[in-house]
Amino acid sequence: MTRSAADVGSGLLPARPARPIVAGERIHVLGAAGAGASAAALLAHHAGASVSGCDQGGRSPYSSALEAAGIPLAAEHSPDHLYTGSATDRPVGRLAVTKALTAVAPDHPELRAARAIGVPLEPWQQLVADAAATQPGTRLVAVAGTHGKSTTSGWLVDQLVRDGRDPSAFVGALLPAELTGADPATARWGSGSEFVVEADEYAGNFDPYRPDVALLLNVEWDHPDVFEDQAAVEQAFAEWLRRAAVDGHRPVLLANVADAGVRAVAGRLAGWTGEVVTVGIGVAADVAAEMEVRDGVSQLVVGGRFGPATLKVGLAGSHNAANALMVYAAGQVLGVGRAAASASLAQFAGVGRRLEHKGEASGVTVLDDYGHHPTAIERTLEAVRQRYPGRRLWAVYEPLTYHRTAQMLERFADVLAANADRVAIADIWAGRDPDMTVTSSAALAEAINRRRGAPASAPGSVEATADQLASEVEPGDVVLVMGGGRSYVIAERLLELLGGKPR
Q: What is the pTM of this model?
């Protein structure tokens, strides 16, 4: 059973046109230790707001940047956070909220208290859009699609920086300190005209963004709790793009037409007043390319608009070659020099938890990735095979949400059984999905074993999974840890148990 965007974001105000953040404006961010909400807090802080945050999960990989910026982060939720000091002081001007909370607890005490005193409740994405509107003359560049948004967004930031630009950005994965100019974070604040945002389709998360340039990487059915089928996903993207082209605004859409879902979205845009630039590998397009792999390195030969060019791609996998072509095309639309574009495509090292090399210990290589969809997992395993040919490959997966796992269980099993040598399935991370009765990690492991491919086990928690791996891996193995919850703990704990240290 699917839920509407309004139901998932129950009690939150609908998306509105972005407005500049007022200097000194008091804003509190609920769930501020998350990847996206932490970026919203940082960007609002740099835009001049007085920002505070809370997260009952406490510190996270994203909270260090908040601490470095001097943004107070409470490790619990409380209605007291609505006030600057005591209950007699003025309340905050607004509360920015993650839908991970409203999806499961729309009547949460902090939300209920805000409504009682008239404090506006908005999704944190609105805060990101407002931060972009605070800088005059900003060109909003939105990277959208089911897979690859974080890598592509970070890659585009890298390309702009190499070209001497000073972009601002929200990226859903940690950017390295070399790109943020400070601590690793999911946000970058610059003085330039480009503002890059990762635009997520879940429950209307991308609605506050009205991009000047949009990248549509791929469109595939995901989030079964909000999208009934593939057609519903395509319609959501098309409606978002139509809303961007109003009141004389003519955005540029870079569409990866090598992807069937993107082609379907483009077919729904008849009469759209924006400009469409088609991009693709192995297809007819305005920006067309052919790909070849030499010594494990992908190379693109680009023709058509923005060609001719021959570009090396530093990140492994056909999916990253497609992302690289989109980054190159976007950079050319934004006027990036060819030398900077070429250097970025060849040298960009990626973003946090996207095929991230965590370390080596006892002859075992440990990688960490956010993959949690069958297609993303298949492409990531392909990339690992390209980078580490001939080595035994462990696929270690913490499924993200019960309903996604149940709806796609057979596809997960097909991909994992066919593309790995050994598989371990950790307990499912519930996230915003409270129904734990529909499937289990053991059910997925059993489905994999029925296929007589890679043998699979379901050790239990992320800690138990790391413990079992430590007793079974051998020198020469490559362990790819994947998932969107606490799966990163597996990679870190495994390295420690093997006598190494995470990078």
A: 0.92
